[in-house]
Amino acid sequence: MQNQTSIDTAHRPNILLITADQWRGDCLSAAGHPCVKTPQIDALAREGTLFRRHYAGAAPCSPARATLYTGLYQMNHRVCRNGSPLDARFDNLALAARRAGFDPTLFGYTDTAPDPRGMDANDPHLTTYEGVLPGFTARQLLPEHERQWLSWLRSRGHAHAVNRDIHIPVGAQAGEISAAAPAYSRDETQTAFLAGEFIRWLGEQHGPWFAHVSFLRPHPPFSVPEPFNRMYKPDDGPAFARAANHEAEQATHPYLAFAMPHSDRGSFIHGAEGSLSAWSSADFAAIRAIYYGMISEVDTQLGRILQALKDAGAWDDTFIVFTSDHAEMAGDHWTLGKGGFFDGSYHIPLIIRDPANGPAGGVVDDFTSAADIFPTLCQRLGIEAKNGLDGRSLMPFVKRESAEWRDAAFWEFDFRDIVQGEAERHFGLRSNECNLAVIRDARFKYVHFTALPSLLFNLRDDPMELNNVAADPAYAAIRLEYAEKLLSLRARHLDQTLAYTELTEKGPVTRRP
C-alpha cells in the first residue's frame, strides 16, 4: 500500500466506522466550542485520538464520501458531483475489508453512484446517486428520502408520517424557521432508528465484525425534537465569519456572486422557497441554534451505541472511527450547506479509538485528510489496497509515534453542471474548467480556480477569510509560493497505481515508498 507504515497483524479487532453527515469540525466541546455540548463524543476522545485539523477532500456528499471510502483525492477518483459515477476499477475500504474476511455491513447510506458501464440502461440503480458502495452488505438502508424510517414511525402510531413533511415543526408553516419540535420524539428520530438497528444487529454477532453506521443528521432539513430544539439560543455560539451583508460577500469573488443567489432555501428548511439570500442575520442565527441541537441529538444516540458495545462485551475489541463526510457553513459567509472554498465546508471532526493503545487520549494538530481513513484501516487490519492511495495511515498518531507528515490541508470542489449547464453558461466555461483546488496551512490559504481569479488569505491576520490579498503586490511572492506548492502536490498525487512498477528481464518489479 502506498505510504503505508508497518502492518499490524497481531490482532484484528471489530471495526466501527461512524459518519455523521455535515458535522462541523469545531462543533465538539472536546475541541473547545464555546457552547455546543457533545459529552458522548468527548468521552470517546478521552479514550482515543482527537484530530483537530482534519479536512474533507471534496464536497458535496458523493465526492466527499468517495475520498473517504477510496483514500483518493478527487483529482484521481473523479467523482465530481452528486451523481458522478465511482469508477469500478477503484478499491475501497469495504472491498478491502471483505478480502480480510469481514462482511462489511452498512447502516444508512454511502451516496455512491454506480459505474454505468456494463450495466443495462434500464437498471433502476442508474436513476439515483444514492447507491451502495461496492463491498457493503446493506443491513438497514436509510437514504435521504427516509422511507424506511417513515414506515417505522407509522408502525409506532404516527399515521401522518408519509413523507418528509414530518420534519415541519408542530404549529409551524411549511418553510418557516421555527424552534418548535416536530411530531416525533427524541427516541424516534432517524438517528435513534438507525442506532437501534445497529444495536439489534450487534446482539447477533459472534467473532470480528465490520460495521459502517452512516447517520444523516445533522444534515438538513433543520428540525429536531425536544429537548434539543431549545437547547441553544440564537445568540449562542461564536461570531459569524462573514462580510457586512449578502451583497458585500458576493462582491468578493465571481464564484460567490454566482453561487450564493442560487442556493435554495428549501434544501435547509422543509417547504421553504426562494434564495438563501433573502434570509436575515436573525434567520441564520435561529437556524444555527437548531443545527447545534441536532448535533447534540446525534451525540446522545452515539452514547447508546457506545454503551451497547460495552454491554455486549465488545468495547475492548472494537476499533472506532468517528468522522463526517463534509461540514456545514452554518451561517458563515451568509450561507448554509457545503461547497466552494471556505473552511466551514471542509473542516470536519475525526476521533479514532484503538483499544490496543490504552485508554489515554491524545490530540493531533497536524493536518489530516479524509483520504487517510482507508489507509489507516488497511494498516490496522493488515491488508493492502489494490491501487495507489493519496492518503496515509494515521496509525503512527494513534500509537503516539513520531511521523513525518504533511504541513497543509488540501481539498477540491467542482461546480460543473452536466445536466443543465448553468454554471458553464454563466461563466462561459467548459465543464472541466468549473473547479477549484485549495492548499491551506497554518499561515495562508490559497484557492486556485482553473479559469476564475485565485484567492489568497492571510489566516494569521484574517482567520475568518474576509480579506482576499491575492491581488496585493505585497503578497505576490507568497501567492507564487503557494501556487507552486499546489502544483507540486498535484504532481505528487497523480495516479500511482502502476507508476511504482517496472517490467524487467526478471519480471515486474514493484517498489512503493
Tell me what the structure shows.
This protein is an alpha/beta fold. The relative contact order is 0.18. The protein has one domain (14-407): 3-Layer(aba) Sandwich (Alkaline Phosphatase, subunit A). It contains 13 helices and 14 strands. A hairpin with a 3-residue loop joins strand 10 and strand 11. The longest helix has 31 residues, at 281-311. The strands form three sheets. An eight-stranded mixed β-sheet has the order 4-3-5-1-6-7-2-8, covered by helices on one side. The chain has a four-stranded antiparallel β-sheet with strand order 9-10-11-12, with helices on one face. It has a two-stranded antiparallel sheet with strand order 13-14. Keywords: Hydrolase, Metal-binding. One of its GO terms (molecular function) is metal ion binding. It holds the Pfam family Sulfatase. InterPro entries: Alkaline_phosphatase_core_sf (IPR017850), Sulfatase_N (IPR000917).
Give the key terms.
13 helices, alpha/beta, single chain, 513 residues, 14 strands, eight-stranded mixed sheet
CATH homologous superfamily annotation: Alkaline Phosphatase, subunit A
**How many domains make up the 3D coordinates?**
1
Query: Which word captures the global form?
Result: globular
The stretches of 5 or more residues where confidence is low (pLDDT under 50) are 1-10
Count all strands and give the number. Answer: 14
> How widely separated are the two ends?
9 Å
What is the fold-level CATH name, i.e. the topology?
Alkaline Phosphatase, subunit A
Order of strands, widest sheet = 4-3-5-1-6-7-2-8
CATH architecture: 3-Layer(aba) Sandwich
Percent of residues in helices comes to 25-40%
What value does the average pLDDT take? 95
Radius of gyration: 22 Å
CATH class: Alpha Beta
- How many helix segments? 13
